[in-house]
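Summary for the steering committee. One of the milestones for this cycle was to obtain a three-dimensional model of the protein with zinc ion bound, which we needed before selecting residues for the alanine scan. The sequence and ligand used are listed below.
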Amino acid sequence: MSSLFNTEPSQFEIPHSNPESMNLIPRMFNTLLQTLNEDELKEVREAAYKAFGKTGLKDKGIDIINITENNKFDALDQITNEAKADFARRTKFQKLGLYIQAGMSKLLNPVGTETLVDAVASCQTAGYLPTIKKFIINMDSAPDFIFHEMGHALTDKYGNFLSKFNIKSRFYVLALAPVFLLTSLIKTPNKNKDEKPEGVVDKTTTFIKNNCGKLVAATFIPILIDEALASIKGQKLAKEFIQSKSILDGLKSTHLKAYSTYLLATGLFGGVSALAVYFRDRWSAKYKESTDY
Ligand SMILES: [Zn+2]
């Protein structure tokens, strides 16, 4: 176990959320960015900085790392170094938590920090990294992404107890998904439908097996809530500072598209889990048939 805790952030990757660049849904939503001309970009950028100032997030120690093609390697260094320093300060218990979070965010989006930074530079995504209190975003070309990310930070720093608890728990709840799936795959199916499960363990595992797809999908609920909150808060903030209706409409559609990647992921993970259990049981039934004489 000690080697696990000695591993540095660059090797386990920093927990992040960035639906926009999810490899899971190949390239489908990679065109989230609305096409803005130079004047519009300027308007959004100014609005973004004003909004950032108004939120008071800077006083909470949160800052923006503007990542472009020109400085992406420096940005990667900065993020990695800050994450390492943060990691070194953590207790063993917190380090374990970071591992779980990083592992789960990687399940959703199996890219490393390097790829993430690259995706930010090329305007495919943006992110809020709560551990190092940074927004990672291309403010030159995709400043509109920051409103959603500020929404995350607002929940993180000013949310009520429930929404704060929700944002902190999201990756831990998601970690139940592989537990549900593995339990269902290991559990042998009942020989016939009328057979009732006996005892707490049998009853629980039977319930998990019978509802595996739904349970796996349910582990996405905290993420779905958090993402919806971030977009609602971000859109509200944008409305205060952006005058142009067409830009606001474009932002709304960006938020909706990003959200639909999460809904799709929920459906995919749930559906695939249910199918996996179905086929596992069919194969084991077939195997039984061929060996039962
Ligand atoms: Zn988000």
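Key point for the committee: The longest strand covers residues 63-66.
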